[in-house]
Amino acid sequence: MHLELGSRAHASDPGALDRFLLAGPNPSEQSQVWIFRTEDEARTGSPPAGPSGRPPIEYAGPAEDERAWHDTIERLASDADYRAAVFLRIAAVRPAEDGEPTMEPPYRLVVERPYLVQVASHNPHLGTNVIGEARLVPLYDELATAVVVDQSAGIPREGTVDILVAPIVGGPGWLEINVSIGVDLLPAASLGWVAEGRPEGAADEADTDGTGTPGSAISRAFGLTPVDPVAEAAVRAFAVAVESGMGAELRVRLLRYLRTIAPDETRLTEAEALALSELDRFEDARAILADVPLDSLGAEGRATLLAAILRTKGLPEPLERVRMADLSRPDSFRLVLGASASLPAAEQVRLSEFVVARLLSDDRAAAWLAATMARDLPAEARARLARLAADLDTHEESTR
Prior knowledge:
Layout: E1 9-11, H1 14-23, E2 57-59, H2 65-77, E3 88-95, E4 108-110, E5 115-122, H3 128-133, E6 135-140, E7 145-148, E8 158-167, E9 171-181, E10 184-196, H4 202-206, H5 217-222, H6 229-243, H7 248-261, H8 266-278, H9 282-290, H10 299-312, H11 330-340, H12 345-358, H13 362-373, H14 379-398
Parallel strand pairs: 4-10
Antiparallel strand pairs: 1-2, 3-5, 5-8, 6-9, 7-8, 9-10
Helix pairs in contact: 6-7, 7-8, 8-9, 8-10, 9-10, 10-11, 12-13, 12-14, 13-14
């Protein structure tokens, strides 16, 4: 178990805190975990724990935040158990665009908008050899989040490290920041958030770059590679064709040509897959998109990939990969729901159980179940869906 005081908290009297913890209510005689409950507010320990029985803890205000954190580290670093520890914390979170203000927790992010996470490092106790070897290793849900960190840059003894984060789908998200030293992987800091979808219209705008071509706002905002003028010219040329009302068959032929000019441009790859999907060439669409990293695809591209998988290969394995599509977006919801009709009845039920329980709001879950139950399904499948709908109704009643 990992316990910590917040960065703004410190023991005003370490000796009194030790006595307070030893006198406090532990789960068992062997336990070293102290539990403080609000009903223990007036408890007096033996020896007395302090006024009103509260632990001798003081809290620093926001202006003293950094000083309190440094003081805590300097006290811990003198302890043999922490002498080799690496201390990091989340110092700031803000939208990656220049001039945007720092956000306050709890963090509510916007899907496909990039954010700059500043991770502070204060490790005056570590030797040069340890600092030189240490590397940041982020752990995160790759189906729901795009993360970019320069792992080769290492960790400063005193300073900050920038990490770029962008939610791919709506809902809760997390980032764990670990430190690699030799063969050890040590947890150092963590960040959590809830991602919300963009308003309709704004979401479509986020998927384009002024050319009318779908693409990843995340990858472009991260600026991982310099702009390729040839690729940009090819994207603009395709945008002109789209605006002229060119049909899907002609768009595929044009994109095949443009992709020979800019073979690494994922926006053109995604656009070809979308056109192939319009032509019901789902196997070809799936094959093209399968080789593109998810965080290089726009929301429409990810939904198209999932729909193509459902139509050609059945449910993805593991089923968690359904989360690649942001079903909070109406267009993605309709596309995936329509593709689910091609699944065998048992798989339609399994998919419905997963998305209703894990991914959809109550109103969207009701719409999903209504559409699925309207299909020609065996009695057993319909009965399972009916039970799912009844459970949903019960949940809706309990939350009113």
